[in-house]
Amino acid sequence: YNDVLALYPVDIVTHRLIVPLLRNLGERWAQGRVSIAEEHFFSVFLRNKLGARFHHLNRDRLGPTLLAACLPGEQHEVGLLLFALAALDRDYRLVLLGPNTPLGELPPVIERAAIQAIVLAGSPEVAAPVIEEQLPRLCQTVRLPVFVGGRVVNACRSALIAAGAIPLDDDLNVALRGIDATLARR
């Protein structure tokens, strides 16, 4: 990982190395060919590598500040970390809260950190009450763009829109262009 990052930009490493590895791991998991220990090892390895890179790069950014967190019940944060690195590459500042973040705890963070938008991530396994009750309440309370990415978008796009959230594309560059455009209109 370190050797590849020394040679290539983070978006190329993400699209050509990490995302295919994650897909492969997911496919092997679905087929019962991956143990919990193997999945946890890979997740911890990636979280440590991506997290260290995030903390190193999160200084000296000048763009808008995004609050990034996983939806309540979402324990897998690798996708959120990949998004955070791509956002840093576009000069965004980030407040990263990580997995299983209660949505009701976000408004005080927004006030203290001068957040311009929220980015939430989740999988289809996120409980329906989160999408149908907690997310609409958050969107009405914060009065700033609330973006949602991850596999939950494919499963719950209509419910996310009905809640007042803005679904993000799977492609990180397309997702960030959408965030750019939304923030430019504000």
Give structural notes:
With 186 residues, this protein is an alpha/beta fold. The protein has helices spanning 2-7, 10-30, 36-57, 78-89, 106-113, 128-142, 152-163, 172-185, and strands at residues 65-70, 93-98, 117-121, 146-149, 166-167. Strand 1 (65-70), helix 4 (78-89) and strand 2 form a beta-alpha-beta unit. It starts with a helix and ends with a helix.
Topology:
Elements: H1 2-7, H2 10-30, H3 36-57, E1 65-70, H4 78-89, E2 93-98, H5 106-113, E3 117-121, H6 128-142, E4 146-149, H7 152-163, E5 166-167, H8 172-185
Parallel strand pairs: 1-2, 1-3, 3-4, 4-5
User: Quick one: how many beta strands?
Assistant: 5
What radius of gyration results from the CA coordinates? Answer: 16 Å
Largest sheet: 5 strands, parallel
Q: Element order, helices and strands?
A: HHHEHEHEHEHEH
Average pLDDT figure:
88
Query: Structural class given helices, strands, pairing?
Result: alpha/beta
State the low-pLDDT regions, or none. Answer: none
Helix content: 55-70%
Percent strand equals 5-15%
Q: Distance N terminus to C terminus?
A: 38 Å
Instruction: Output the strand order for the largest sheet.
Output: 2-1-3-4-5
Number of helices: 8
Q: What form results from the Cα inertia axes?
A: globular
